[in-house]
Design goal:
By secondary structure, the protein is of the alpha+beta class. The protein has nine helices and seven strands; from the N terminus they run H-H-H-H-E-E-E-E-H-E-H-E-H-E-H-H.
Length: about 200
Amino acid sequence: MSQPPIPSFDELTDTFLEPLITDLITALGEDVSREGLIQTPARVDRSLRFLTGGYGLTLEGVVNGALFQAEGAEMIVVKDVEFYSLCEHHLLPFFGRAHIAYVPEATILGLSKFARIVDLFARRLQVQERLTTQIADAVVQTLAPKGALVVTEASHLCMMMRGVQKQGSSTRIVTTRGVFKDDAQLRGEVLAALKP
């Protein structure tokens, strides 16, 4: 039996989430007509659209031609790019920082575009492992560098608020491409530089 087609982002933005959110709040045992909740379905609708806005973006649109000739082959590191995402398993936030390093071949990217690339993938239903890989792949696709390395460090509310309830826990994911995958010394230098 075939699955129904997945709606596009444009089709989803034409639908209204408010009735679904109203039903959800009611199913949880609350009264959506009470003063504090009257506007909540509309607010949650807007919030979810913002938090998943990455589905409506493309890598090409985010980069927007901000590519420049490299004047050398020195390693470039962009640290502490904040991100906020929603765990696809529980729809609870996870948040942290991404660090991106690359060794250019012929092209470099405007620095602010790295933050936009992170948001492109963070503002979706995600797992941290995929987010880290998608950022690395986007850097490679955009710049064809000699190598790329991406580290994400995040706290997951699905571990902190529920389940094991470990508030101090965090997760660190490292993804490497090119020279960073092949050269352990170079990889080690970057990872050492990224330690707090």
